[in-house]
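Fold it.
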Amino acid sequence: MPPTAVRRVPGRLTAPEPGWTTRADVVVIGSGIAGLTTALRLRKALPPGAGRVLVVTKDVLAAGSTQWAQGGIAAALGPEDTPAEHEVDTLVAGAGVCDPEAVRVLVTEGPEAVHELIALGAEFDLGSDGLLSLTREGGHHRDRIAHAGGDATGAEIQRALIAAVELAPEIEVVQHALAVDLLLDGPAGAGGGVAGVTLHVMGEGQRDGVGAVHCRAVVLASGGLGQVFSQTTNPAVSTGDGMALALRAGATLRDLEFVQFHPTVMYLGADSVGQQPLISEAVRGEGAFLVDALPEDGGRRIMTGVHALADLAPRDVVAKAIMRRMIETGRPHMWLDARHLGAEFWERRFPTILATARSHGVDPVTDLLPVAPACHYASGGVATDLWGRTDVPGLYATGEAACSGVHGANRLASNSLLEGLVFSRRIATVLPGELRPWADPAVDERPAGLVSGSVRTELQEVMSTRAGVLRHAPGLAEAADRLDKLAGVDAELVDVASWETTNLLTIGAAMVQAAALREETRGSHWREDHPERDDARWAGHFDVAVRDGVTVVDFLAAPATDGAA
């Protein structure tokens, strides 16, 4: 299949010349579980005299996606569970696009990584027997989800990691800093490797404005792309900056079309945009179920007869079932019934969700929760090998910014935190022995460009209505055309809004192109005009790269890995 061009993607972002410079051996971009795990392990692994690690975060240390993770972290931690069973569940959820070796790494190294996190200070919930309290979520056939604070797992993990970083003088942290572009020692896409990174720092005194950090390696742990859609569970900082930066520098992006839409996001009304409240899958794991109407209106359970696991089916199955019923009934949302759990259970197990729902006027102890699918997680990202290496020498990627191969077409619930742990540890194992020599940045001949931040709302509307849960060829073609026109709206101001919008447009355009080319329904990618999965044609990956200044999308064939029909 011939590559397909995506137009109007800048080679680099328009930005002022750096007004300040500094040096660090390794720059880690992102401060969630992936970034802080990498930094903490690198400080011990780097050789003497090469141990300066700089962590760059777009907001404050705790502002990323990790703190919002409610359900927990999945690993074979129970006495009756095994990594092999976890592997099978992950491959089935991934719908034939997982890298089996990456999955095996995840599940075999996962338990040790979780225990190391506990030793670092993360306090997980325990049962009456003093052992980890484990629960179940969609797609899992065992209770293997460890949680903390009931439904505050991510917040507890973030707390423990930040506390450890604050005790590590070898790690410097720069907050309120947007990573603009990589500095390379040669041409992008033609062997140019990492020589540094430009940052825009907001409110840091001597480092205010755009500056340059010269370094020997960069680790991208910058999170996802949720803000490309109108409704998402992702925080405001999730604008795909790391993915877009890597693409411009010559890295490959993989599996962008596989965006997971969480089936149970609290519906706040048609006009509500931005980050929406997540109703964790763990609520269904504890017995809640989906219905298509209020009981007094003859409401029926949605998942009965749809899947053997019913309400605990993989997320793509549940999201599609909800959307189908929404279309059939003409309703803008469905309902989650968890009233039978009772007040005491809600207050102990899901205090965060309970408080959030009540703040929006819904009491799940007595009311049904209005829910609808919304963008939740990017299974794709910067393509890496099993050690986090990308196509660009000196550039590594981990966490949601990366495509390690473990998620395939649909991430298994609660595997994301584990991925951040496992593959960040692996990067810290190999990076010290691969540190590049210090190099001066080459003259950057990539054409600069910047899209106006004013088009962001329209961009999100296009992506949500034409490239969201439901996709088809005419809608994707319209999306591509409209995004191309938006790309022609040049920025009048060089500012954060325009940088973020340009990144979102870069990633959105590539996602639309990959989604248009994948003429099948697989995992989280649902094509109404191609409703069946087609392993004969599409068991593989769509890779996005920049060649000769043009962004192209190629198909990389791979065998199916789950044996499912």
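The chain has a mean pLDDT of 92.
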